Amino acid sequence: MENYYIKLLSFKNIAILLLAVLPLAKAKSQGVRFLVPDGVVAHYGGSIGFGSAGISYDLFKNQRGNLDFTFGYVPESKGGPLRILTGKFSYKPVKIGLKDIGTLYPVNPGTFISYTPGEQFEKWSKTQYPKGYYWWSKSTRIHLSLSTEAKFNGEKVLHKAGIKAIGVYSELNTNDLYAVSWFKNKDSMSFLEIVRVGYGVRVYF
User: Fold this and answer.
1) Domain 2-24+37-204: CATH class, spelled out
2) Is 90 exceeded by the pLDDT of residue 119?
3) Can you tell me the distance from the alpha carbon of 195 to that of 205, in angstroms, rounded to the nearest whole number?
4) Is the pTM of the predicted complex or chain greater than 0.70?
5) d(Cα 118, Cα 80) in Å, to the nearest integer?
């Protein structure tokens, strides 16, 4: 089962996903336009799985925001097996033009919620621990993030491929549990210990 999910998130299958979704992007109709994703995203690390992939939507008329929905997997060799469902939002307040090559978005604050289903993430035992002993959810984490994205013109990178742009980004994040742990142990815990790093590619149609 572990090998199945690793293959599912391989670069080959991500490429197949791109080719499968591309015709949908070209065939958008006014009635269902808001349901059809504006792109796909592949992500490595960053608290949402050893590898993850999903769909992406452009937000706002000026396309200064992204809303992503991803499925991630952590293999047994990396602490799993775990499956992680994530909804991510990021805002791009600063835009720097790179001539006709593309655009740089240097500082993109965001937030996301991740959910990890599984028997090991059921509610804490009420008989074993007193009420309020564990105040946080085992399966759901709320994160704050900060990313940088370079978005390249698709016509310059992949001629006649039907792709508007390709974005490459890096992302820092932490979550509610890490933040509280650091706040309570600042004298013995470095802030960098609660920061996680992820990298991704977003393809825009």
Assistant:
1) mainly beta
2) no
3) 32
4) yes
5) 11
